[in-house]
Each structure stands twice: as C-alpha cells, then as structure tokens.
Amino acid sequence: MLEIKNLHARIGDREILKGLTLTVKPGEVHAIMGPNGAGKSTLSYILAGKEDYEVTEGEVLLNGASILDLEPNERSVAGLFLAFQYPIEIPGVATMTFLKAALNAHRKAKGQDELTTPEFMKLVKGVAEKLNITSDMLKRPVNVGFSGGEKKRAEIMQMALLQPSICILDETDSGLDIDALKVVSEGVNALRAPDRAFVVITHYQRLLDHIVPDIVHVLSDGRIVRTGGPELALDLEKNGYAAYVADAAA
C-alpha cells in the first residue's frame, strides 16, 4: 500500500531524512517513535506534499503509483490523509462548508456525484455523534475556539468522511487529556479495515495502549534503526532512546 524506498530529504541546507525505507501493507498499523529531531514530522510533511521540503533521492509509492510529483490535493484524492500535530485554525471558513467542499471534491475527482445537502448533513451527523462532536462545534469556523482535544476529534471526523486508504497521524496524542485520548483513539480504531493502513507517529506508549500497532519502528537521525512488535514500544518507554541513537550514529 505505502512503499518508501531510500528516501533522502532536506530543508534548506539541512539533510533530515537519510535513506528511510518503510513498507506498510493494507490493514496494518505501524508506529514510528524516536527522539526529537529524528525526522518523524518531516516524514509526515513530505508524504503530504508540504512545501519547502526537498526530496533529493528515493521514491514514495501509494498503491503502486509514485506520489512525489503530485500536489497535496492530488495525494489526498489518491488516498492519503495527514492528521496534524497542531491543526490550524481557519477563521472565516465554516466547518460544514469546509467538510462539504472537501468531500465533494474527492467525489468529483473519482467520477462520483456530489452529495446533496440533506445527504451530507445525515452523513456528518452520524460521524459527529460517534466522536462527541457537538452541533455548536460544527457551526464554528474551522478549529476556531476549539480545545486541543476538539481539534483532534475534528480531524478524525474529516478522516472518517474522506475514507482514505493510508492515514498518517503525526503525534495525534499531543495535548490530549485522558478522556480526549480515548475518544480520538476509538475514532481511529473504528476506521481500521483490511483495505486501510495507518502510520502513527508518537513519542509515547500511552497512545499505543489505545491504538495497538502491528509493527513499531525506531527512527533516529533520519532513518529507521530498529523494527519490532508492540513490545518494542514498551522497551522504549522503559529505557528511552539512548541505545537506538547510538546505533544510528554507529
């Protein structure tokens, strides 16, 4: 589903990714952990097509097709979704308008009819109820006045509406209290499916208590230095990253 081969990338004069290779198969959940500055968020930005990051070597394939030359909206239509660590506010853009425009743009690109307003309202209401998203939240501009937990729940709602094939969660647990973490995790778990995969980027085991990964990777100095099962995250929680940073430097 997602194949990253020998990916090298830089921003300005600084090389951040230094030969990262990763394969994520349909239905799998991969967790990527690592110290600050390892390149975790850089990876998510490059996958989503964020400007300023230059890929100097390697390739990224989604369902067998290269995405590096696609615009961010084209990557989204191809099936990629990025949940940001810090979702931005968009004053003046109503949440419902934003959601309807995004969903219908996807449908149009796939040759499907746009949803009517009643069809769209019914769909959003069903998803919002599962994520404890109130009608008041839906009436506000995008993320304006939202708490950290509300912003993350709103992103999971976008994910549920767009039904991507690969979901990148960039430190989704950042800023969440225990209750919000549980709601967001339940929303993610409800979307797990044989034809959908997740890459969960996190510092902490606590998220992986709720979203249990199939495979855990340690990213250090721009490349993956260790891969294992869920027990690897427990070892990192207990012993830290020092040994893995040393492996990367060796």
Task: Explain the overall architecture.
The protein has 250 residues and is α/β, with parallel strands linked by helices. It has a single domain (2-249), classed as P-loop containing nucleotide triphosphate hydrolases (Rossmann fold), CATH 3.40.50. 40% of the residues lie in helices and 28% in strands. It has a six-stranded mixed β-sheet, sandwiched between helices. It has a four-stranded antiparallel β-sheet with strand order 2-1-4-5. A two-stranded antiparallel ribbon has the order 7-8. Strand 1 (2-11) and strand 2 (14-24) form a beta hairpin. It starts with a strand and ends with a helix. The model has no long low-confidence stretch (mean pLDDT 89).
What share of the residues does DSSP label as strand, in percent? 25-35%
Largest beta-sheet details: 6 strands, mixed
**Number of DSSP E strands:** 12
Estimate nothing, just give the exact number of structural domains. Answer: 1
Which shape, going by the Cα principal axes?
globular
Distance between the termini: 31 Å
**CATH homology superfamily:** P-loop containing nucleotide triphosphate hydrolases
Helix and strand succession?
A: EEEHEEHEEHHHEHEHEHEEHH
The whole-angstrom Rg is 18 Å
CATH domain topology: Rossmann fold
Oligomer: single chain
Strand order of the largest sheet: 6-9-10-3-11-12
Q: Give the CATH architecture.
A: 3-Layer(aba) Sandwich
* Number of helical regions: 10
CATH class value: Alpha Beta
The computed structural class is alpha/beta
Low-confidence stretches: none
Task: Kindly state the percentage of residues in helix.
Answer: 40-55%
